[in-house]
Amino acid sequence: MMADSEKAVLVQGLTKVFGGQEVLKGVNLEVPGGSVFALFGPNGAGKTTTLKIILNLLQPTGGKIEVLGMDGVARSQEIRSKVGYQPETPNFYYRARVENIFSLCRSLYPRWNQARVDRYCDIFDLPVRGRVSDLSKGKMTLLGMALAVGPDPELLLLDEPFTGLDPLRRRQLLQLLVEEMAGEGRTILVSSHQIQDMERIADRVAFMVRGRVILSRTVDELLRDEKKIRAAFSGPAPEGMEGWPGVRRVEREGSRLLVTVSGQVEEVAGRLSGYDGAACEGIDQTLEDIFINYAGEGLING
User: What order do you get walking across the sheet with 204-209 strand by strand?
Assistant: First the structure.
């Protein structure tokens, strides 16, 4: 497995044009080895396109891609032997039996952990002798996950891996990913709308909007540095707060102000408290709150 200091995925200046439309606009992404990396973004942001280019299922228009220390285009076949991939919409042979799907995929990889696959099938109640066409949407998702972990991948690429799963199955799947894949030092790159779920296991996140990565930080840094301050004043409120260092947004809540702050929380809180009659209250944000703040701005300004 890769050391934390190494990059499991390195994307620099990635562009992609479909039919004259630029859907990826200079994407930069660094996924440390052994990390759990979550890629968040609204529909159409370019997340799936980025994952497919990382696997060389799509050719980039421009930019540089390295995967597991190898050129993402020139050595794509070798890379695929070390990567597990669960697509957003898996396409199976629907008339085949589940066990036949496993047999086919096992023949395509230089190594295959059948014991792990069998255990996932048991945990997820996958009917190995049943036909794919009889599976529910959630079972299709779980079949895709079992296939993704089968080749004992160094890198696991998961595109919306919770589709059709109820909260219990999502929690079960997250626990397996943490205990087995991440616990063994494997790298996980997940594209997901389930921000609350991923907040429990992700080390680092990137926010993607309209073909650009607008932010990439560790989860701990984001939760520490992105805050809101609710402030009330007995006299006039400060003017020009939008221009203060660290202040990203100022909103009115009746007679109070709600100030969104990035990176300079203590400095802004101290400056506000210096005004006569000021009363300030710090408010923590969830990862979903922070994503909505940044993604909303990206949609407006993109």
Answer: 83-86, 155-159, 187-191, 36-40, 204-209, 212-218
Q: Where are the alpha helices (DSSP H) in 150-264?
A: 167-176, 195-199, 219-225
* Residue 206 bridge partners (DSSP): 39, 216
| CATH code of the domain containing 284 | 3.30.70
Spatial CB neighbours of 49, under 8 Å, sequence gap ≥ 6: 16, 23, 24, 58
Q: What is the pLDDT of residue 2?
A: 59
Q: What pLDDT score does 82 carry? A: 95
- The answer to whether 4 and 32 are in contact (CB under 8 A) is yes
Domain final position from 150, 178, 210: 210
Residues 240 and 195 in one domain: no
Divide the 302 residues of the chain into consecutive groups of 10 and give the mean pLDDT of each group.
Answer: 76 95 96 96 93 95 96 95 92 90 93 93 94 93 94 95 90 88 92 86 94 95 94 85 92 87 91 86 92 73 53
Cα 193 vs. chain centroid, distance in angstroms?
A: 8
pLDDT at residue number 157: 97
Distance (Å, whole) CA 301 – CA 293:
12
Q: Domain range holding 251?
A: 222-301
Of 94, 104, 182, whose CA–CA distance to 139 is shortest? 94
Q: Which pLDDT does position 302 carry in this prediction?
A: 52
**Which pLDDT score, from 0 to 100, does residue 4 have?**
56
The Cα-based distances of 152 to 42, 114, 116, 287 in angstroms read 30, 10, 9, 30
Residues 245 and 96 in one domain: no
Cα separations in angstroms, 221 against 35, 86, 204, 290: 15, 29, 9, 12
